[in-house]
Amino acid sequence: MTPNADIRAAESLLAFWADAGVEASYADAPIDRMAEGLAQLSARRAAVSAAIAPSAARVPVKPAGPDISQALAQARALAAAAPDLEALAAAIAGFDGCALKFEGASQSVFSRGRPDAPLMIIGEGPGGDEDRQGEPFVGRAGKLLDRMLTAAGLQDQVFITNTVFWRPPGNRTPTPAEQAVCAPFLHRAIQLVGPRMLLLAGAAAAKSVLRSSEGILAMRGRWFDWKAEEGDLELPALPTLHPAFLLRQPAAKKKAWADMLMLSERLSRPHRSPEEGA
Ligand code: URA
Fold first, then answer.
1. Residue from 109, 110, 111, 124 to probe ligand 1 pocket by mutation (most atoms less than 8 Å from CB)
2. Are 182 and 165 in contact (CB under 8 A)?
3. Minimal CA–CA distance to 100: which of 91, 112, 109?
């Protein structure tokens, strides 16, 4: 091959890896991070079991594979035992039942915003910036979300989190199993914050939180009733377009803005008791 052909071949290979979500290279030889993660996992089992509630400690930690029942039982026990948001963040960080934790994420990413916010925003899952900084929606999509919240006068009224708490590799959509094992922590966060309503950013959040298979374009801009799996907590929930989608399709901003105004109008109504509705 001529030197130019070598360069073109190298560029083409790099473009292929970039498309596949590979953003950095640290060594000459490949390393199987998943195998490393599983080894770490067994080493941590004993420590995690000792740190959690006695009934949950009897459930061996196992990242959710095809059968998520053990991981789900443990997530439920850990989430229920968390008395406040700080304890919930620690419980999430120590939870080994979500496979995403062992697929290259550098830390868990739980929340930012007001701990008693009237509005909870739920996104899909952390991306690269969130993985590095440890907070949700801090990258380009998050900055757009912040600008929209500010324009709607809602910037101080939000608590922001995601359906999963570890970055999916290559920013792929989290699987229903990954979302399901994280859901008990999300539900506990809703109980602890006590928002008046939920804003669901994007298809992955709307489908998972509302247990629906409808497309986001059909769901956005309509109010749904979110019901807790256990207990009698119910909240109005509004699906909207994901800010990352708006960055790719700016023409869709008009629809997302209409959703934001609808939300802001409902939030500005006088607060009534839960029995009377939001
Ligand atoms: N997209 C999400 O859904 N959540 C984040 O935290 C960041 C980007």
1. 124
2. yes
3. 109
**What pLDDT band is residue 58 in, cutting at 50, 70 and 90?**
very low
Average pLDDT, the chain: 87
Tell me, using a 6 A CB cutoff, whether residue 142 lines ligand 1.
yes
Distance (Å, rounded) from C-alpha 35 to C-alpha 135? 27
Over residues 64-88, the mean pLDDT reads 93
Helix (H, G, I), strand (E, B) or coil at 236: strand
Q: Domain for residue 174, yes or no?
A: yes
**Is ligand 1 within 6 A of the CB of residue 111?**
no
CATH code of the domain containing 92: 3.40.470.10
State the total domains in the chain.
Answer: 1
pTM to 2 decimal places: 0.79
Residues spanned by the domain of 187: 68-267
- Residue 53 in domain: no
195 lines ligand 1 (CB under 6 A): no
The response to whether residue 124 sits with its C-beta less than 6 Å from ligand 1 reads yes
The phi and psi torsions of 112 (rounded to 5 degrees) equal -145, 160
What kind and span of H or E run contains 272?
none
**Does the pLDDT value for residue 67 go beyond 70?**
yes
Q: Is residue 28 part of a domain?
A: no
Asked, for residue 38, whether it belongs to a domain, the answer is no
Taking the alpha carbons of 244, 247, 248, 251 in that order, is the dihedral positive or negative? positive
Measure the CA angle with vertex 152, ends 115 and 206; round to 5°.
65
226, 197 in Cβ contact below 8 A?
Answer: no
